[in-house]
Recover the amino acids of this structure.
């Protein structure tokens, strides 16, 4: 995506929120950020861990992120990768 619009940002935030909700984290904050250097976008996540908070940055291709909102295999693959990356984050009762 060459030109980033408000709609792009809103859609990516909605997709990330849905994925993080499915992971069942007990407490978290996140931000989706396009990168100016041509690299994939990144999702910055602060999540609750035992005894405090942890900050992580996950690179993500924006097209894949948007596909994860509607395509099961893409969503499943992204969830699996994020579950591994966020393994130290506290889980709520969902999981």
């Amino acid at each position: 995506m060459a030109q980033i619009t408000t709609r792009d940002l809103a859609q990516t935030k909605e997709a990330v929120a849905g994925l993080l909700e499915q992971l069942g984290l007990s407490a978290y904050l996140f931000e989706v950020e396009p990168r100016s250097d041509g690299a994939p976008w990144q999702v910055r996540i602060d999540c609750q861990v035992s005894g405090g908070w942890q900050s992580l940055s996950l690179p993500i291709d924006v097209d894949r992120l948007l596909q994860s909102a509607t395509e099961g295999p893409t969503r499943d693959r992204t969830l699996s990768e994020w579950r591994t990356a966020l393994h130290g984050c506290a889980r709520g009762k969902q999981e």
User: Anything to note?
Assistant: The first helix runs from residue 6 to 23. The chain has a mean pLDDT of 87. The first strand starts at residue 28 and ends at 33.
